[in-house]
From TrEMBL:
One of its GO terms (biological process) is L-serine biosynthetic process. This is Phosphoserine aminotransferase. The modification N6-(pyridoxal phosphate)lysine is found at K195. Residues 40-331 form the Aminotransferase class V domain.
Length: 372
């Protein structure tokens, strides 16, 4: 027999996905306004280029980027950017911090590249984050600010003792816009827009330092063969013209512009970080006071503010719990498939109202009482 959660317990908006994430209804207003004037028109012309320009300018301000950093964007998501970085940013040897499924994929892409040395890989137990150590001769360091698959986070910092000129590449796909960052600690802070920026996939964006831009230009002009679509210099050149190499997803740009306007109006990155922090505080407080649930990430300092992973006792079927929530309009709480744990994964990006997180916990309690 199906379980019906009383409407007064349910969140006002039941979307808790870790990506794609909740798109605020107000964002659709800009899509309607653009209508036939921009959607379906040439990305080489001013209307679409104006969207790209606003994304680049607003994002630069929102992230508090140093003046000489550039916002670069290109077609494809973060998965494609790993290939871009493999071809266009690593000179010879890289060091990778792996703490989950997504950070492992970048390391694997580099390991398969025949023109690069074998990468040095530091592997953490899922749910934990071990900081990288300097490796003599390494010219690139790569790690994730927030591992989407496990809900573990770490601060953005340069690796102490790294060789002069070594680049710091930070995968910020689920961290950007919801976690604090000092971009001076990174050379390439890259992400896709379907998390905190509440947009669709299909694009990657990166805040790049002068050192990263110089490395890109040097490798691009070398004898290394790089497919044009994976040549980061191509993306840099097109971004400076407020366009992309190939046709971008214009609706994705519009949704991101709307989200950036909302975040900036609320108070910028501080506002966004505080909103996610409040949601995570409510969720983890509930976990701490619940006998049948526990935080998958044991170290409180490493518990993500934007993606929470909650384990449940064996007496509770978390898969059944997630299905029941979905039947009641509370969706995308399923765990990351590769972890194979009896848990829920809950996205708490800035678009999510903290009150809805509190309502979610009430819904979980209601269902658990009936399935335990």
């Amino acid at each position: 027999m199906s379980i019906v959660i009383p409407r007064e317990l349910r969140p006002a908006d039941g979307r808790f996905g870790s990506g794609p994430s909740k798109v605020r209804p107000e964002q659709l207003d800009l899509l309607r306004d653009l209508g036939t004037d921009v959607l379906g028109t040439s990305h080489r012309q001013e209307p679409v280029r104006a969207l790209v320009r606003e994304v680049r300018s607003s994002l630069h301000d929102f992230l508090g980027a140093p003046e000489d950093y550039e916002i670069v964007l290109g077609n494809g998501g973060s998965t494609l950017f790993w290939d871009v970085a493999t071809f266009s940013l690593i000179r010879e040897r890289s060091v990778h911090g792996v703490c989950g499924e997504f950070s492992s994929k970048f390391a694997a892409a580099v390991a398969a590249a025949p023109f690069l040395a074998e990468p040095v890989v530091t592997r953490s137990v899922p749910g934990e984050v071990d900081p990288l150590s300097a490796v003599p001769g390494a010219d690139t360091y790569a790690y994730a600010q927030n591992e989407t698959s496990t809900g573990a986070m770490q601060p953005v910092r340069r690796v102490t003792g790294a060789d002069a000129g070594a680049l710091m590449l930070v995968d910020a796909t689920s961290g950007a816009g919801g976690l604090p960052v000092d971009l001076r600690e990174a050379d390439v802070y890259y992400f896709a827009p379907q998390k905190s920026f509440a947009s669709d996939g299909g694009l990657w964006l990166a805040a790049m330092s002068p050192a990263a831009l110089e490395r890109t230009a040097t490798i691009s002009s070398s004898d290394r063969w790089i497919p044009p679509s994976l040549n980061l210099q191509t993306a840099v050149d097109n971004s400076r013209l407020d366009q992309t190499y190939n046709t971008p997803a214009v609706a994705t740009l519009a949704l991101m512009v709307s989200q950036l306007r909302w975040l900036q109006a609320g108070g910028g990155l501080d506002f966004a970080v505080a909103r996610s922090a409040e949601s995570s505080r409510r969720l983890y407080d509930w976990v701490e006071h619940t006998s049948y649930a526990s935080a998958f990430v044991a170290d409180p300092a490493a518990r993500s503010r934007v993606v929470a992973t909650v384990d449940f006792d064996d007496a509770i079927d978390a898969a059944l719990l997630a299905r029941t929530l979905r039947e009641n309009g509370v969706v995308d709480t399923e765990p990351y498939r590769a972890l194979k744990r009896n848990q829920l994964r809950i996205g708490m990006y800035p678009s999510v109202d903290p009150d809805d997180v509190s309502a979610l916990t009430a819904c979980i309690e209601y269902v658990v009482q009936r399935i335990a």
